[in-house]
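hiii so um. not sure if this is the right channel but i have a protein structure encoded as tokens and i wanna go backwards to a sequence. like what aa goes where. can anyone help
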């Protein structure tokens, strides 16, 4: 009958597992690998065993299995060609952190502009460079191919920057409300500080000469103010002309917090040059804002007068004391004395005085020898010396047409020395919310903003110098750097176990004393290894190490088909870096 006829079928390798009891009564498991042919006998499917492959090595059995599945087999070391290899690990890790933070969605709706903008931010973390250099760099990584920006032109990059600049307010508003008003900031503190970077070219409308925080005297610059949460996490940035004063910048950010971000009941934290008495009065008039700042030297000297509340006896038992004064109604004043700072200031003052004495003595000799004459010329020479060392207030100068003499003003020096190491913090935060020690710690947290500026300028993001000409592009460039710094901040926190970052910085017993590192951080610095025995690296060198994790494209020799992608085997450090991000190592970014 036709239904009983056998028809040929496909062959396959079947794994048969049986369990038996041996002669000693012990259960045993036996595994057999059988080469079988499957065929249909009428309506029934049957299997025919052609050979027992069990005696063969496991590798041979798998080779037969793969061959029967239609796969092309090649001899190890022969037949496969690596047609391309791209650095992948660093961009994959930064992209994974960006996804975890929701950064792609935060930037805006999906599209070409967002892909380019995201690539610019990630590239700024991995390899900061000019925009032209960046587009050349990312073409040599998996970033460009996976985000689809490999063919992005310079005009498209600038268009993406303009697109991002238009969305800055919306992006910052979400960041500010997430980090400044969330449960992680119960005291509603907002830290703000100002820095500057020099500008190349002569066409930037924001470029102006002002006080350079980069030490680039005489060069045009821009200024930018960074707003952070108490942990130093960047949430907003504002760009100003290069001659903007600190108080003016502070007024701008307060207006942004109130009008743009719609926040009130915030406590602004800034240094003594930022939140001046005039700015404090503005905050009083605005309402809804508190402050933490410090007094300037003249105000401290007034408090330390004979009948003032700031007396040295306050520091007999402790390094800080709470005081009050009618000139500061509704405020708490915390006076602090740092002995280490006092010693350093005394040493520095003495060194500057001695250097000034040496230079002024040279002028005296020149006048006495007749090589220098005229009150005007003598005054210019003297002014340069006392200006260089900033010691004019400590000298009594006697200049005439043909003579010059100087003496130290010992009364002035003694008065200044009496206040060495003393600073006074003023705040509206009451003792029911913060004790004096926490107020001091809050003011000293401004060091975290200074750390952010170091990250922005040179260590991580390399914001400077500014190459862009138009105001919009300059602002967009600084904003991209701020977003990259936001990413780098979270990466540094996550990768602390792999880097020299202090994972468990101890809370200081004395808030006035200098901060100290933990024993674990000292051990990492001394041994150059992490707690689990891996090499400890800087943040930048860890990114460089991750870049050695490549994605390779392979194909079978003699075949023109596309082939397949294969990741290099990650090192233990690379695996750990992704584990700390709570992410698997992806083959592609999307």
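sure thing!! here u go:
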């Amino acid at each position: 009958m036709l239904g009983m006829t056998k028809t040929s079928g496909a062959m396959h390798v079947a794994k048969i597992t049986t369990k038996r009891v041996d002669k000693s009564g012990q259960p045993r498991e036996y595994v057999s690998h059988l080469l079988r042919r499957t065929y249909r006998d009428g309506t029934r499917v049957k299997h025919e065993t052609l050979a027992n492959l069990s005696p063969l090595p496991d590798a041979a059995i798998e080779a037969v299995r793969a061959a029967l599945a239609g796969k092309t087999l090649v001899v190890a070391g022969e037949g496969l060609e690596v047609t391309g290899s791209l650095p992948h690990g660093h961009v994959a890790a930064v992209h994974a952190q960006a996804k975890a933070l929701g950064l792609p969605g935060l930037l805006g709706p999906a599209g070409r502009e967002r892909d380019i903008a995201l690539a610019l931010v990630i590239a700024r973390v991995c390899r900061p460079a000019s925009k032209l250099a960046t587009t050349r760099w990312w073409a040599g990584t998996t970033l460009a191919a996976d985000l689809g920006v490999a063919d992005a032109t310079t005009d498209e990059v600038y268009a993406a920057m303009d697109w991002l600049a238009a969305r800055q307010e919306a992006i910052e508003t979400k960041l500010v409300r997430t980090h400044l008003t969330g449960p992680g900031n119960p005291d509603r503190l907002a830290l703000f500080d100002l820095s500057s970077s020099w500008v190349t070219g002569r066409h930037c409308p924001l470029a102006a000469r002002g006080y350079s925080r980069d030490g680039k005297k005489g060069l045009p610059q821009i200024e930018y103010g960074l707003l952070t949460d108490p942990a130093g996490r960047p949430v907003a940035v504002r760009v100003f002309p290069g001659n903007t004063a600190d108080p003016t910048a502070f007024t701008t950010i307060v207006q942004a917090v109130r009008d743009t971000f719609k926040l009130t009941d915030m406590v602004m934290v800034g240094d003594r040059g930022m939140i001046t008495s005039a700015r404090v009065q503005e905050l009083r008039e605005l309402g809804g804002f508190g402050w933490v700042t410090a007094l300037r030297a003249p105000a401290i000297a007034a408090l330390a007068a004979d009948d003032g509340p700031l007396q040295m006896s306050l520091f007999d038992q402790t390094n800080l004391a709470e005081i009050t004064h009618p000139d500061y109604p509704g405020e708490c004043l915390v006076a602090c004395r740092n002995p280490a700072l006092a010693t350093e200031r005394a040493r520095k003052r003495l060194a500057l005085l001695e250097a000034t004495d040496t230079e002024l003595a040279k002028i005296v000799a020149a006048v006495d020898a007749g090589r220098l004459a005229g009150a005007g010329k003598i005054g210019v020479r003297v002014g340069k010396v006392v200006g260089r060392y900033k010691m004019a207030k400590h000298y009594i100068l006697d200049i005439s047409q043909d003579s010059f003499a100087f003496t130290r003003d010992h009364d002035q020096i003694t008065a200044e020395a009496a206040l060495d190491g003393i600073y006074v913090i003023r705040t509206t935060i009451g003792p029911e919310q913060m004790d004096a020690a926490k107020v001091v710690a809050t003011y000293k947290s401004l060091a975290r903003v200074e750390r952010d500026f170091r990250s922005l300028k040179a260590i991580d993001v390399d914001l400077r110098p500014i190459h862009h000409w138009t105001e919009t592009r300059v602002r967009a460039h600084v904003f991209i750097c701020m977003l990259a710094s936001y990413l780098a901040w979270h990466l540094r926190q996550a990768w602390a176990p792999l880097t020299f970052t202090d994972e468990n910085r101890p809370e200081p017993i004395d808030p006035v004393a200098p901060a100290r590192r933990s024993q674990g951080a000292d051990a990492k610095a001394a041994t150059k290894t992490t707690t689990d025995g891996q090499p400890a690296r800087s943040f930048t060198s860890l990114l460089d190490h991750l870049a050695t994790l490549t994605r390779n494209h392979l194909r079978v020799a003699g075949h023109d088909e596309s082939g397949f992608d294969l990741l290099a085997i990650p090192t233990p450090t690379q695996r750990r870096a992704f584990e700390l991000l709570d992410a698997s190592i992806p083959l592609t970014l999307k």
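oh and Confidence is low (pLDDT under 50) at residues 1-7.
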